[in-house]
Design goal:
The chain is an alpha/beta fold and 296 residues long. It has two domains: 3-136 and 246-295, D-Maltodextrin-Binding Protein, domain 2; 138-234, D-Maltodextrin-Binding Protein, domain 2, CATH 3.40.190.10. Helices cover 32% and strands 23% of the residues. The chain has helices at residues 19-22, 26-29, 36-39, 44-49, 76-87, 102-107, 122-125, 170-185, 199-207, 218-227, 259-271, 274-281, and strands at 15-17, 51-56, 59-60, 64-66, 73-74, 91-96, 113-118, 128-135, 138-142, 162-166, 192-196, 213-217, 233-234, 247-253, 294-295. Helix 8 (170-185) links the parallel strand 10 and strand 11. Helix 5 packs antiparallel against helix 12 (274-281).
Length: 296
């Protein structure tokens, strides 16, 4: 069984884990107290409720996944959400949902915000307020030794190959279609995109040779390659011809009124040691950004 797949199972989509389950390690959380300026920006209904819910697909180590008990949410995004909740003086609930249901769920008010490596595209900003919080990237996972000579530095090497991408992800919606169009413009066969629901499914298909590569966010792929070097190898160069930049953002429905409070909480964390300490804990320190922006 794939080590990276041990996070599957547990809570079904929409199940909540309590604040204690979602808390990061004590040495990091102990550095954080409620920030009165951020608390003052909370909508009255959220402040009265005393809780805030964060939605994420808990199948993406090391950012959002389930611990070995298949119940406890862990990961960088889980830690960040817990730190934000503490900065706002609230208890955190984690909602485990598939990535493609996050935005509809936010719009319907089923949860308050998401921390799920979502890039702030113009389409998303039509319905979400987004708060930048770190820099990610896109990479290609291959089998060890790269016998097919697939490459992110030479995208034409992907032409005609079966490449897994995730439902709703930027790689599926923007990057791979552009690579495929470039292939066809040069008289080469299009990339055969295999769209799958989560990274575990993609890695399982790569290990079983049903796909030839996985094109997704760098962090979870690097984590899987580190955990299972006998099964996976991360191509050393990231995808360069990207749409926009690598910044990812929290998201909350424009109608929630939570954007300013989340932004103030995130900036408060960045001003102290907890933000970088949490990134470093998960091996993602190179993705730190100096300041957060509220995008509307």
């Amino acid at each position: 069984m794939l080590l990276t797949a041990t996070a599957c199972g547990g809570s079904s989509a929409g199940d909540a884990a309590g604040a204690a389950d979602a808390a990061p390690t004590a040495d990091v959380v102990s550095q954080v107290t409620a920030d009165p300026a951020a608390v003052a920006l909370l909508p009255a209904a959220v402040k009265a409720r005393g809780t805030i819910s964060m939605a994420a697909d808990l199948h993406n180590a090391p950012t959002s996944y389930l611990d070995t008990d298949n119940k406890t949410p862990i990961g960088y995004n889980v830690d960040i959400a817990a730190l934000i909740a503490k900065t706002l003086g609230l208890k955190l609930e984690i909602k485990n949902v598939s990535f493609d249901t996050v935005i509809p769920g936010l719009a319907a008010g089923r949860f308050d915000f998401t921390a799920t490596n979502m890039s702030p595209t113009p389409e998303r900003l039509k319905v979400l307020d987004m708060i930048t919080y770190w820099s990610a990237g896109s990479s290609l996972m291959i089998v060890p030794g790269n016998p097919l000579k697939l490459s992110m530095s030479e995208q034409m090497s992907l032409c005609g190959h079966k490449i897994a991408v995730l439902t709703g992800a930027t790689q599926a919606e923007k990057y791979l279609p552009q690579i495929s169009a470039d292939c066809q413009a040069q008289g080469k066969p299009a990339v055969e995109a295999i769209v799958l629901p989560n990274v575990q499914a993609a890695l399982t298909q790569l290990a079983s040779k049903r796909v030839e590569g996985v094109f997704y966010d760098t962090a979870p792929l690097a984590w899987a390659a580190k955990q299972q070097p006998q099964a996976f190898e991360l191509f050393p160069q990231r995808y360069k011809k990207k749409v926009g930049n690598n910044i990812v953002a929290l998201g909350t429905a424009k109608t929630s009124g939570l954007g300013p409070a989340l932004h103030a909480a995130m900036q408060s964390l960045m001003a102290g040691p907890a933000y970088k300490a949490t990134l470093e804990k998960w091996g993602l320190g190179t993705g730190a950004i100096p300041t957060s922006e509220l995008l509307k």
